[in-house]
Structures are given as structure tokens and as C-alpha cells.
UniProtKB/TrEMBL annotation:
Its main location: endoplasmic reticulum. GO terms for biological process: steroid biosynthetic process. Its EC number is 1.1.1.62. This is 17beta-estradiol 17-dehydrogenase. It is an enzyme of class 1 (oxidoreductase). Belongs to the short-chain dehydrogenases/reductases (SDR) family. 17-beta-HSD 3 subfamily. Keywords: Lipid biosynthesis, Lipid metabolism, Membrane, NADP, Oxidoreductase, Steroid biosynthesis, Transmembrane, Transmembrane helix. The chain crosses the membrane at residues 6-25, 179-198. One of its GO terms (molecular function) is estradiol 17-beta-dehydrogenase [NAD(P)+] activity. It is found in: Endoplasmic reticulum. InterPro entries: NAD(P)-bd_dom_sf, Sc_DH/Rdtase_CS, SDR_fam, VLCFA-Steroid_DH.
Length: 310
């Protein structure tokens, strides 16, 4: 009996070691790609002539627009404020020589997709970045204290991803080539109290992307979901960059090194490590009232001191 028990514990121990070894290998892959960029410069261009980026007028979307143009793609900028898009289009054309098309649309509305479809007609689209999103509360807040624009948030964070994918995936499927990057968030990896609506909307993006990748990977299409944490943009009130808080440009440059690494990642090594630490917190601690108190006090103070919050 003692012998069997001993063998059982040895097997369990070996399995635990194996699981951690696999996790280490995953990190090794990111560390390798962080320092040695192995994505061939022609890879993104080989997917098609155009890249479509939603929420392209600022922050992460603007950074993707510049970076993808540098990789040789023509760019379709879709966002809300026309003047911002016009300036960015001029800057991209001047800096990279690529063509830029502008589509003004408000993703909180559900009746914009026919107009977008009309404007995308005839373009060979290789890359779609479903980036647009809204965060109703930067400071942690109880659900009932957050603005009541629930429908807008659902349209902007969820409907936009589904509808834009519907519009573009069909032509990618017929050419058997294409890359879709869906920008979710680290708070979509598991439920975050005090960011309930945002966290749930980003969890949708994760689940949708992974299911879709399973359906379409055999058809030559890569669908990747990115789950970053803090990035200094207008959404985070230009939170001061540091080891964890990335600038949009740094984040986007690094994230493009990982486009061939699988269905999901955080987009940068620092956030991959942070996600690893957060996963170690037991759920009884994470969902305790003490943790919520920590978010409402210490984390709120940190945001107030480091972001441009009035
Ligand atoms: N920043 C972060 O720390 C962070 C972390 C994780 C995930 N994310 C996700 O990354 C994505 C981009 O975030 P970001 O920080 O770059 O956002 P951002 O700073 O708010 O800028 C996003 C751009 O999207 C546009 N936009 C916002 N609402 C729109 C709407 N209803 N219709 C059309 N365009 C709209 C804005 O238009 P205007 O130019 O008109 O303002 C702006 O150009 C979001 O999905 C966000 O959830 C961000």
C-alpha cells in the first residue's frame, strides 16, 4: 500500500513539474521574441494590400496604423473624429508613402456597418485590427455608480468586433489569407470586480476570438486576441509610462513580434509576466472585500497621482 502511495505522489510531482516546465517554455518563447525579432518584414504585407484599424484616431489604434504602414500595408483608418483622422492620414502618407483611406464612424451606433461596407468595397484586406473600445470608469467603481451608457459600451466593445469580422472575414476566407488582431484586455482574462462591464465585454472578445481561430485556422487565417494591461493613452488619461505601463508605440511594436505565436497573448513581455503573477493570486483573495478595498484606496490613489485625472 505504502509503495503504491509513494508511486502515486511521484507521478503527481512529475506532472506538476511538467506543467511548470511548459509554462517556462511559454515565457522563454516571449523572451526570445522580445529580444530577437524574427517576424520577416514581408509577413504582414503577404496577407493582403490593406490593413483596417478601428479606433485609429488615437492611442493604440493610431500606433497600429503607423506601424502597419511601415510594414508596407495601405491603411484604412476608422474612428469618430474626422479632423484627427485627416491629420494622421497625412502623417502616415508623408512618413511611409502608403495610401490611407478614412472612414468616420461612431461604434456606439449600430447602423454604421452598411456605410463601412460600402467604403471597404474593392479593397484587398489582409489585416483587421479590432481595436476600438471604451472604458466607462478608469477609477475602480461599483456597477451602479458607473455611467448608464450600457448599450453604447456593448456596441463599441462587442458589436464592433463581431460586425467588422463579419464584413472582412469572408474575403479573407476566399483568398485563404488574413490576420485579425482583436484587442481585448488583461481584465478580460478573468472577472475583475469594480470594472464589471468592461471586464465582461473584454472576456467576450477573448472567447469569441479563440472559438473563431479554431474554426478558421485551417483556412489560412490567423485570429489573435491581445490582452494587455496598462498602456498610456487617452483612455488611461495618459498614465505615466513605466516598467508595466507601456507607451502605445512600444506596445504595438512589440506586439507585432508575436503575431505568429498563437491564438492569445498579452502583447508584451512585461504584461505576460504580470498576468503570470495575477494568476497566482487565489480566487478567495482576489474576490475578497479586502482586495476591493485595496483597489478603491491604494490603486485609486496611484491612478490619481500618475494619470491626468481632474
Ligand atoms: N489603454 C489601455 O491601458 C488599454 C489596456 C488594455 C486594453 N485596451 C484596449 O485597447 C483598445 C484601444 O485603447 P486606447 O487606450 O488606445 O483607447 P483610446 O485612447 O480611448 O483611443 C481610442 C481611439 O478610439 C476612438 N474611439 C473611441 N470611441 C469610439 C467610438 N465610439 N467610435 C469610433 N471611434 C471611437 C477614439 O476616437 P476619438 O479620436 O474621436 O477620441 C480614439 O481615436 C481598446 O479596445 C481598449 O479597451 C487599452
Amino acid at each position: 500500500m505504502g509503495d503504491v502511495l509513494e508511486k502515486f505522489f511521484v507521478v503527481v510531482g512529475l506532472l506538476v513539474c511538467l506543467v511548470y516546465l511548459l509554462k517556462c517554455l511559454r515565457f522563454t518563447k516571449y523572451i526570445f521574441l522580445h529580444f530577437w525579432k524574427v517576424l520577416p518584414r514581408s509577413f504582414l504585407q503577404s496577407t493582403g494590400q490593406w490593413a483596417v484599424i478601428t479606433g485609429a484616431g488615437d492611442g493604440i489604434g493610431k500606433a497600429y496604423s503607423f506601424e502597419l504602414a511601415k510594414h508596407g500595408l495601405n491603411i484604412v483608418l476608422i474612428s469618430r473624429t474626422l479632423e484627427k483622422l485627416q491629420v494622421i492620414a497625412m502623417e502616415i502618407e508623408r512618413a511611409t508613402g502608403r495610401r490611407v483611406k478614412i472612414i468616420q464612424a461612431d461604434f456606439t451606433q449600430s447602423n454604421i456597418y452598411e456605410y463601412i461596407k460600402e467604403n471597404l468595397k474593392g479593397l484587398e484586406i489582409g489585416v483587421l485590427v479590432n481595436n476600438v473600445g471604451m472604458l466607462p470608469n478608469l477609477l475602480p467603481s461599483y456597477f451602479l455608480n458607473v455611467s448608464e451608457e450600457v448599450q453604447s459600451l456593448i456596441h463599441c466593445n462587442i458589436t464592433s468586433v463581431v460586425k467588422m469580422t463579419q464584413l472582412i472575414l469572408k474575403q479573407m476566407e476566399s483568398r485563404r489569407r488574413g490576420l485579425i488582431l482583436n484587442i481585448s484586455s488583461g481584465v478580460g482574462l478573468f472577472p475583475w470586480p469594480l470594472y464589471s462591464m468592461y471586464s465582461a465585454s473584454k472576456a467576450f472578445v477573448c472567447v469569441f476570438s479563440k472559438a473563431l481561430q479554431a474554426e478558421y485556422k485551417e483556412k489560412g487565417i490567423s485570429i489573435q486576441v491581445l490582452t494587455p494591461y496598462a498602456i498610456s493613452t487617452p483612455m488611461t488619461k495618459h498614465l505615466n509610462p513605466n516598467l508595466i505601463t507601456k507607451t502605445a508605440d512600444d506596445f504595438v511594436k512589440e506586439s507585432l513580434n508575436y503575431v505568429t505565436t498563437g491564438e492569445a497573448h498579452c502583447g508584451c513581455l512585461a504584461h505576460e509576466i504580470l498576468a503570470g503573477f495575477l494568476h497566482l493570486i487565489p480566487s478567495w483573495a482576489f474576490y475578497s472585500s479586502a482586495f476591493q478595498k485595496f483597489l478603491l484606496t491604494w490603486y485609486s490613489d496611484y491612478l490619481k497621482q500618475n494619470a491626468n485625472i481632474k
